[in-house]
Design a protein that fits this description.
Helix content: over 70%
Oligomer: single chain
Shape: elongated
Number of strands: 0
Largest sheet: none
Radius of gyration: 28 Å
Distance between the termini: 70 Å
Strand content: under 5%
Number of domains: 2
Number of helices: 4
Mean pLDDT: 88
Order of helices and strands: HHHH
Low-confidence stretches: none
């Protein structure tokens, strides 16, 4: 038995809904900048309304419902994660910073040694 997922082919109606949703968002952004002489509340209202229309259109399509299901599943999986305590996160961050510092010193030293070997010993250029 396999666990392969089956991808359904969306209809042209669903593609049209997604295209209209994208067009609604673009129209909202264009409207926000086009209405520059109007109060900010009106401009933001146009933008929020266009986003609400886009979400409504996308939600009625199969792609939008799939995205909504994916979002719900992601939230559910995030709740299952065992997050580190503050002390553990601080210790891990300190280890990372320490390693980065040691690596930076190592790379700087390697660069200076190679610079000395190349310029002073091989090429004979004294800086």
């Amino acid at each position: 038995m396999s666990n392969q997922t089956v991808q359904t082919v969306s209809t042209s109606n669903d593609k049209l809904k997604v295209a209209l949703a994208v067009a609604a968002v673009i129209a909202g952004v264009v409207g926000f900048y086009f209405l520059a002489n109007y109060p900010t509340l009106v401009r933001v209202g146009v933008l929020v309304a266009s986003i609400a229309i886009a979400v409504g259109l996308a939600w009625t399509s199969a792609t939008g419902r799939g995205f909504l299901d994916f979002s719900r599943e992601s939230v559910r999986e995030t709740r299952k994660v065992v997050w580190p305590t503050r002390k553990e996160a601080t210790q891990i961050t300190g280890i990372v910073f320490g390693f980065v510092l040691i690596m930076a010193i190592f790379l700087w030293g390697t660069d200076k040694i190679l610079e000395f070997v190349l310029y002073n010993l091989i090429l004979g250029w004294n800086q």
